[in-house]
Amino acid sequence: MNQKREMSRRQFVTSAAAVAAISSFPARDAIAVIAREGAAGATQTEVALTDKPGWRDQGVENLAKSPHAKLRNIPVRAVTIDSGFWGARREINVNASIPTMHDLLEANGRMTNFLRLVGKSDAAQRGPVYSDSDVYKWTEAVGFVLQSGDRPKLRASAEKMINEVVAVQEPNGYLNTYYVDDRKSQRMLPQTQTTGHELYNIGHMLQGAIAYYRATGDRKLLDAGIRFVDGFLIPNYGPAPKKPIVSGHPEIEMALIELYRITGDKRQLELAGYILRGDKRIDLPERRTIYMFSGTPFTERTKLEGHAVRAVYACCGATDYYMETGDDSYWATLNKLWTDMTTTKMYVTGGVGSRADGEAFGDAYELPNFRAYGESCAAIGNMMWNWRMLAATGDAKFADVIERALYNGINSGMSLDGVMYCYRNPLAFDPSGGDKIRNPWYDTTCCPPNLERTFGSLPGYFYSTSDDGIYVHLYDNSELDWHLENGTGLKVAQKTNYPWDGSVEMTVTPSQPTDFAVYLRIPGWVDSAQVTVNGTALSGVKPGAYLPIRRRWSAGDRVHLQVEMVPQVLEANPRVADDTGRVAVQRGPLVYCLEEVDQSNGVTLSDVALELGKRPGSEFQTEMKSDLLGGVLLLHHTGASYERSASANVLYPRYTGANERTKRVPLTFIPYYAWANRQATAMQVWTQVVKS
Amino acid sequence: MNQKREMSRRQFVTSAAAVAAISSFPARDAIAVIAREGAAGATQTEVALTDKPGWRDQGVENLAKSPHAKLRNIPVRAVTIDSGFWGARREINVNASIPTMHDLLEANGRMTNFLRLVGKSDAAQRGPVYSDSDVYKWTEAVGFVLQSGDRPKLRASAEKMINEVVAVQEPNGYLNTYYVDDRKSQRMLPQTQTTGHELYNIGHMLQGAIAYYRATGDRKLLDAGIRFVDGFLIPNYGPAPKKPIVSGHPEIEMALIELYRITGDKRQLELAGYILRGDKRIDLPERRTIYMFSGTPFTERTKLEGHAVRAVYACCGATDYYMETGDDSYWATLNKLWTDMTTTKMYVTGGVGSRADGEAFGDAYELPNFRAYGESCAAIGNMMWNWRMLAATGDAKFADVIERALYNGINSGMSLDGVMYCYRNPLAFDPSGGDKIRNPWYDTTCCPPNLERTFGSLPGYFYSTSDDGIYVHLYDNSELDWHLENGTGLKVAQKTNYPWDGSVEMTVTPSQPTDFAVYLRIPGWVDSAQVTVNGTALSGVKPGAYLPIRRRWSAGDRVHLQVEMVPQVLEANPRVADDTGRVAVQRGPLVYCLEEVDQSNGVTLSDVALELGKRPGSEFQTEMKSDLLGGVLLLHHTGASYERSASANVLYPRYTGANERTKRVPLTFIPYYAWANRQATAMQVWTQVVKS
Questions:
Q1: Contact call for A573 and B612, based on CB within 8 A
Q2: Which end of chain A has the lower number of beta carbons within 10 A, N or C?
Q3: Does residue A4 register a pLDDT over 90?
Q4: Which residue blocks in A63-97 are alpha helix, DSSP H?
Q5: Nearest CB neighbour to B573, from listed A344, A346, A646
């Protein structure tokens, strides 16, 4: 056995070197045919890549040839985000989060898991079955960062990791550091597929490989992924008489389809379709197929349930499948699930997953605040899914969910200093429970590198192109340097203090005067907005829609978007029992919260109520505090509390109906994403309300 | 192996027969010394029982000699409960619940688990590790029923089961149907002790054996329990150099102490103390010792946490330990835990255990309604613990918790027809989630026989004696026929329509005119109460206390208790986020709820609010419906709802502050215990409130 592994390693060193030789070739459309020794020792042909546009010009997704995509991604490098809200987050991400996570992955055995298999480490296997994916997600984060510009040190670290990964690949393409040695016999058994995360790991490997390829043109990891898929997976697994696949943790579906968008190999798309089809392959109890959000036909799903990350990742894959095939049954299911989520199961922060038990969606309207799970990964998956729905339609309602999740339930997942992470993102917190909400490391460390890859990829979410122009999704100081789908060069510069301020100045500069449309997103939360082009006001501005500005654009044309950025008070549907008698405060895309540390001495969050008059929201005072929490705009408002804290009262006193909140207290709100960055203190998004 | 087991079975047939011969001897103080062959074939001496009073006169607990008990139990048979609230429940319990549960236990392999070990069944082992306890709890239920009077068919069934159980006992006293065959080597390993429930099973066996012994004088099962404790446990387990014990699921502690109260064998009390002491014996992660509520010193506990049933059972054992030893550190801890529970962690129904995840206590004030766990067993454990605290002190605050749990969170656990059971007892329910709340059988069937033993033992909870008189805890049509501690005969008859009506007529008849005190419980929920003796009003009536009536009592003295039985509206401490803006309705000891099926057509519970005026509670209309739900008193009140149901609204609409509940709707409340006895329909205990 050892001898065989040693031999296969040598074979791969050879072929990896051969691949590396062509990988540095920065051709726009890399098509390479090289010889390598395969599993059985036979010479195989390296897969030719037929991807267009070439690697440098592909976005977060490459929808260039997707027949049912309305919008197409722009490459990450086409947008430069300058200093501002997201610029600061991205600086921290590159300079603190990603490098420290690299060291933590190494310190926690994530690389010795690989090295030990080629005799370079004596360490025992460490971490859960999905530990390989930690490395791949980190690699993907680096890939996205490198798409925005070279970072030699990060690139060297990633290169080293990639070399250590591919060295472990077996001759038949299999690659996994957990199902080895004594566990080798469990590989891809039906039971292992439901819990073992082998294909989940490979899905993340493919995503990491693709991001790294799109940054560098380096195919090393990508080819390893292709070898797994084409050499191991497709020949052996799929519709009978091949062996069955059950997606224990959906992820491979979207990865296979993105791979297909590079290779053009329809078998990869078909395999994704086979997995999503989910007809009965192995016997699974119903609670298992609910939990996995797989193992039954995707198109028979009627609601979001089970493990939240699994569910939204499955929806990502299904949307990708729809964009390639146009299968209406997928589209109908996706819309049904989206409505189910956004009308009954999504937090106001864009987070999803109400239950810690099973990290799962709850019943409709089951949205507890203290016990909210709202895993960072699930909010990210929600954004990824909506990004795909948006690409399929151009419908701004999907962009609204992206913005809500991104600014709140995702952004909260990483501390302001970039080195602590939330797994859970609750909407209320009581430190007396002893829960430590931010931690530098989790043994299941799915969320931290997921946040890192998301912030790394962010420029790719600012714009899309359509066959008649360009869509503007997000607002921040930035420059686009790209082209229309007809090839006409296009630059767009944004100057803004968004989200603190509602004014966005844009300069649109096509390489030559051209007729096309700029689709300007008017966020759904907007009450009133004005848009001018070169000073002339436009009509037809509608919240929750893209404003199409169709005209002949010339260099330096100025677009000004002005949205009213005032605090808004939201309540919840009365079916959300957890929010009865409570309101949430939002300003622009930011959901706000109360942290007890910001309130007057002795004020207890559970005692206070927001005192609202006839025009709720109009009485907030704003205060920009550049020295607090990395610079935040505070909201102040009058509240009411008890003369003496009621928290020492008996548990079930008699109700008198008398207003006992006779003491006025000032309340100070901070943006939700910035919570839990100081001492442990109580927090709540939903605050009790009384009428003033 | 088989031969050895066969031989040991024969030995026990012999000795069991010898025990049976003396068991039918109805001596008040059975002291028996018989010869039997022990584990190693040596002749051992049967344990002499030194219990006083004799088996017929022992109550739920035998506190006759407990130095730190203020109150002493009366035997179950001393109280006859007539037709009325509890009489009806107890009829159903005996005629429907217990017989059908017997058949279900047999149908689900609970007895073939025993029979197969002596070659009388070919069936495989069935059920979880704690399946033996199902049989023992059922035996305990029968034991209590038989204490109230013979039921030959039930007695025969129990006798048969007992014979089948004891036939399996091994020569060394060990008895368990799970850790046999391949699993024999796992017996009592530290790891097994934390999850295997071996001692939990034996704890229930002892409780079942004791109840059966107190009904019949039959020692067969009791002697088997003693053989386990004295033959297997005490010689091998305990303080070093013996092998360690960790109580994986507390239960054995209270059982050992009750056994000690029969045998007088101090080693049994000491073993319970050793288990409770819980100093470091085996390495356990902290989350495990929290979950188990054991594995660390009981006296170092500062709050209720972890698995709720484990926690309250541990508290039962610790209170028993205190009553025998007077150890102040236990008393201090018990009171701290009691305050923690009743001021921060107990539902208004007396249920405990907020989290389905781990069936656990939550953080302070974490009391979700829809997702409440409130396991029937935990409410029962809460009652059992408070019964012990009450015995130690005579403090009525403990009786208030007993009444709250009994009438609500326990009574809800069994359907009105007695053949369906709740495992969870949530305080709100939405049938669209698909949860089936009542079921005839659970593979973990802890709750059903636990409910059965509780209702079977109920007469034993009506009165206690003290050295100066008698305490009256519960009110229902009943007759006490017992005696004071000085031996003077005493009969007390209660005539009442409690809990529907607040009038209780009592007749007190000592066997001769005697000076003593009748301590009459004035429930804590009472606003106003009058007590007369032979028509003369007494002063000093105080809610939440026992009214001591000290006088010379003569045959036929009449005591009349009249409590104001009006609907009361409760709110929750503002820290209970789940109850914000909501109220609960209680009348007498009964908590009420809304079921959607009782409301006008089209009324949705999540839409409605209870419209309360200046004197909340005063505007309820009552209606006794003898043909509904076994006879219940309904409460009617005006509510407010939306013109059109708001449940189709968006998830997070803007808050306007306008009162949109402009439609008046009548609301009908039923007692909580009677919920979920008709079709699947929405239910809630906590209802939104608006001022009228």
A1: no
A2: N
A3: no
A4: 85-92
A5: A646
